[in-house]
UniProtKB/TrEMBL annotation, chain A:
Pfam families: cobW. One of its GO terms (biological process) is protein maturation. It comes from Methanolobus profundi. Residues 4-164 form the CobW/HypB/UreG nucleotide-binding domain. Coiled coil: none annotated. Transmembrane segments: none annotated. This is Ni2+-binding GTPase involved in regulation of expression and maturation of urease and hydrogenase.
From TrEMBL, chain B:
This is ABC-type lipoprotein export system, ATPase component. PANTHER family: OSMOPROTECTANT IMPORT ATP-BINDING PROTEIN OSMV. Belongs to the ABC transporter superfamily. GO terms for molecular function: ATP binding; ATP hydrolysis activity. It comes from Methanolobus profundi. Residues 75-316 form the ABC transporter domain. Keywords: ATP-binding, Lipoprotein, Nucleotide-binding, Transport. Pfam families: ABC_tran.
Length: 231, 337
């Protein structure tokens, strides 16, 4: 199974670029399945269905979505094996900007859009920094100069990644992304595979369901900010 | 090179390559605080936790540092890919009928693409952008400088050799014209930033019907002013050697001069248009029908003669628009004569 992890902030265009890329791959006779990881609700299932793309959704609900991703990715892979796909593409939203579902030796794609502002690349963590391919969307509605500046800003935080400009509406650029995706190697199992980056460490009373605010309620890992600095 | 740089202090490196500040800033490292620190010691001084807090690790930081230097060198050396000519070899149209001839697009020339909506103009632009090698629906092949690019060339360009301009594009950055151009120039690693910023600003003001100040936020420019600034910026600052333009007819910019500006900066210009003035300003035009190239027409001398009267009509319409805007009575007397 050739596995590809796609991650990116909400509304950056993940679903659109995945659909456009699948359309390119299908023309070459490949079978592709999608697993969508989300927190509360995912409406994209209909979108995938409308394009006849087999899809499964995993909703993390009260759990951290990226931890949830790791616990379920093996099962997703098994589903894809059973269905005899050539490719499994997983889609997840990097909600805290610190997490990243990217796995070593598995093609990692981060999707980010030109409208998110020039300082955004710096704010997004390992999901962008450690991606093999950075797909930049919504280039059709900003100026050439802004596209160039934005790509440079992405370069600053991820100098080794390949940048793909992709228009999620017309599919312009999907051809190129599909070419890159096609080249990825196959994985048999994810047992023993390693995440590219540690997930944020958190095990505190709030993780376990505490709702009340207060010093005496906080047990476990926490961190205090000195807002007053050296005043 | 790598070992040599690792032994150098941040001050020394900043002296050689001031732009590394851009990379350091993405790790929130202020170079002035570590001036005398050697690059190789930065990791142990900041500690591994520091990098982890910022979603990375020391090794990735160092590897990235050298990759970033390579990337910037590519930017500084000018064009990622210098394109003197593009050749579109025949593919087929939507009925599978073969296109009959190839089309050559040369540096410093304008080619118009004409045809009904949905006929396949965008597909042609997309084929060119992806440097198609019989692997797109049209099965066209694109040659650069007369030969087929290998996969490496094709995909290492990341589309940087093509600039695009369309009616739907807007500025979204919250910056003044001057700061915006400066930011773009910085990211392009040009030497004399204030000089190029001035040049783009002046040129844009010539192209725009109404002039604007350097302090105007780019998001507040009118449609015509935005288009003028985009064209001047693309012509003078973009690394792209090919410019694809999609419909700029109603933009309120000096269209003919805009094309001249792009061409004089040695760009290959393709413009998809329905505007007779723009189409006849081009050196040749490709007619698209049913997904395929059905005709290639050189602009004839007779047509060029009409260009003058077309420009007159265009100017007249601009004048009428101004009369409307400024509350004057519409005067068509010179046209009726």
């Amino acid at each position: 199974m050739r596995l590809v992890t796609v991650a990116g902030p909400p509304s950056s265009g993940k679903t659109s670029i995945i659909i456009k890329t699948i359309e390119e791959l299908r023309q070459k006779g490949f079978a592709i399945g999608v697993v969508k990881f989300d927190c509360l609700s995912a409406q994209d299932e209909e979108l995938y269905a409308a394009h006849n793309i087999p899809v499964r959704t995993g909703l993390s609900g009260g759990l951290c979505p990226d931890h949830f991703f790791v616990s379920n990715i093996e099962e997703a892979l098994r589903w894809a094996e059973e269905r005899k796909f050539d490719f499994l593409i997983t889609e997840s939203a990097g909600l805290c900007n610190r997490c990243s579902p990217h796995i070593k030796d598995v093609l990692a794609i981060c999707v980010i859009d030109n409208l998110s502002g020039v300082n955004t690349p710096k704010k997004i963590g390992p999901m962008l920094k450690l991606a093999d391919i950075v797909v930049i969307t919504k280039g059709d509605i900003v100026s050439q100069a802004e596209r160039e500046v934005f790509a440079y800003r992405v370069r600053q935080v991820n100098p080794g990644g390949t940048i793909v400009q992709l228009n999620g509406v017309t599919g312009q650029g999907a051809f190129y992304l599909a070419k890159l995706v096609e080249k990825t190697t196959s994985v048999e199992t994810l047992q023993g595979a390693v995440l590219r980056f540690t997930m944020p460490g958190a095990l505190c009373s709030y993780c376990l369901g505490e709702r009340m605010i207060g010093d005496d309620r906080q047990i476990g890992v926490s961190k205090l900010v000195n807002f007053r600095g050296d005043e | 090179m790598r070992t040599d740089m690792l032994h150098r202090t941040i001050d020394e490196l900043m002296e050689m390559m001031p732009w590394i500040e851009d990379y350091l800033s993405s790790f929130a490292i202020d170079p002035s605080q570590f001036g005398r620190t050697k690059l190789e010691n930065l990791g142990s001084i900041l500690t591994e936790e520091y990098f982890e807090e910022r979603g990375s690790d020391y090794q990735t930081f160092i590897d990235g540092f050298f990759l970033f230097i390579e990337q910037v060198k590519v930017l500084q050396e000018g064009n990622v890919l210098t394109v003197g000519s593009l050749t579109v070899l025949p593919g087929h149209n939507k009925n599978g009928e073969k296109e009959e001839f190839s089309v050559e697009l040369k540096k410093g020339e304008v080619t118009a693409i004409v045809g009904p909506t949905g006929s396949g103009k965008s597909r042609l632009l997309a084929d060119i952008e992806s440097l198609a090698q019989e692997d797109t629906p049209t099965k066209r092949r694109i040659l650069i400088n007369g030969r087929a690019p290998d996969d490496e060339e094709r995909f290492s360009t990341e589309g940087r050799f093509i600039a695009q301009l369309s009616q739907n594009m807007n500025f979204v950055m919250d910056l003044s014209v001057e700061d915006f151009l400066t930011l773009h120039a910085e990211s392009r690693m040009v030497d004399e930033i204030s000089h190029i910023v001035q040049k783009i600003y002046d040129t844009a003001n010539v192209l725009a019907g109404e002039s604007f100040s350097r302090e105007t936020p780019v998001t507040q420019l009118s449609g015509g002013q935005s288009r003028a600034l985009m064209i001047a910026d693309t012509a003078l600052l973009s690394p792209a050697s090919v410019v694809l333009i999609d419909e700029i007819e109603n933009a309120g910019v000096d269209k003919v001069r805009s094309l001249e500006l792009l061409v004089s900066n040695n760009k290959i210009v393709l413009i998809s248009t329905h505007d007779p003035l723009l189409a006849l300003s081009a050196d040749q035009r490709i007619v698209i029908k049913n997904g395929g190239i059905s005709k290639l027409m050189k602009t004839t001398d007779d047509e060029k003669k009409h260009l003058e009267s077309l420009e007159k009509i265009d100017r007249k319409i601009t004048q009428l628009r101004d009369q409307l805007r400024t509350g004057k009575e519409i005067d068509m007397s010179d046209l009726l004569a």
